[in-house]
Design a protein that fits this description.
It is built from 9 helices and 13 strands. The chain is of the alpha+beta class. It has 2 domains: 109 residues, 3-Layer(aba) Sandwich (Aminopeptidase); 150 residues, Aminopeptidase (3-Layer(aba) Sandwich).
């Protein structure tokens, strides 16, 4: 066995995402959730690599990829987007070595807050993260429902919306919301989302004031969504639901923190809690009563 850890390159990301899907399905199937992941185009991973290649690492054994890790940094926040080891190779220290290298990324970038989202039932990985100072903080639920079933529920009042543009004014407005909800700016990630033709981004307005933003994918998935104040979440989430329902997707979904009032709205609309996740971090960071992540990798 010749185990090597090295930086990943762009042309290796597609294979790495196949490894990620394989590892996720092995884990979720073993816990009764079935296979949930499909290998997708590594667009966001490639974006992260171009932005800062220090966060992408591979583990190889005699030239065969056996592990992959990816992290990104926004200001003081380091976020572990992916860390997976192929089935049959867990428990051999590969995950720990990959984590050590991505944590070096945090140090190199000067990030002081560290965070990630993982499966709530993945207790082995949680033990690894806890040993590195990241503690479980907030439960997060993947909520989903058929579009047709959501049409039968009263959706309540919605907020006014306005499209997000990549102007200096709009980017500054996004920065203000993100700093209020998360404590950091995520301008580069907004630019990434706004460049995705399958994504619609809107400002949420109440009484003429911008109170937040929401993104709704053509697939029917909601997120990220953020508001300036937690009391704006009900109207913001109902608005995002209404936009998703107005689309063509058959399934509507969102990742909703357990501390967020949107979770009760999701339940009252008949959305099922299909996958339990948990936010882990080195300290309390961000206000998750007013933020819905896009997915466990993007946050």
């Amino acid at each position: 066995m010749s185990l090597v850890f090295r930086p990943a390159s762009t042309d290796e990301l597609a294979h790495a995402e196949e490894l990620v899907a394989l590892s996720i399905n092995d884990l979720t199937a073993s816990h009764g959730f079935g296979a949930i992941a499909t290998s997708r185009s590594p667009d966001f991973q490639a974006f992260c690599l171009r932005d800062d290649p220090r966060g992408a690492w591979l583990a190889e054994d005699d030239g065969e990829m056996v592990g992959f890790a990816l992290s990104w940094v926004c200001e003081r926040l380091w976020f572990l987007a992916e860390l997976f080891v192929v089935p049959g190779r867990q428990g051999q220290g590969i995950g720990n070595e990959l984590l050590e290298r991505t944590l070096q990324h945090a140090s190199q970038a000067g990030a002081t807050d560290k965070s990630l989202i993982t499966f709530a039932f993945n207790v082995v990985s949680q033990g690894l993260y806890v040993r590195h100072g990241l503690l479980p903080r907030v439960p997060i639920h993947l909520c989903s429902a058929e579009r047709e079933s959501l049409l039968r529920h009263s959706r309540g009042p919605v907020l006014r919306t306005a499209p997000i543009r990549t102007t200096a004014t709009d980017l500054e407005a996004l920065r203000q919301v993100d700093v209020a909800a998360l404590g950091v700016s995520r301008e580069k990630h907004h630019r990434y989302l706004l460049g995705d033709p399958g994504m619609e981004g809107v400002f949420l307005e109440e009484e003429g004031e911008r109170v937040g933003y929401a993104y709704i994918a053509a697939t029917g998935h909601i997120g990220p969504l953020a508001v300036m104040h937690a009391d704006a979440i009900p109207g913001a989430f109902r608005t995002a639901l209404a936009m998703a329902i107005a689309g063509d997707a058959k399934q509507i979904s969102a990742f909703v923190p357990g501390t967020c009032s949107a979770l009760a709205i999701a339940a009252s609309h008949g959305m099922r809690f299909t996958l339990p996740m948990v936010l882990m971090s080195s300290r309390d960071c961000g206000d998750w009563t007013r933020y819905l992540p896009r997915n466990p990798g993007f946050m």
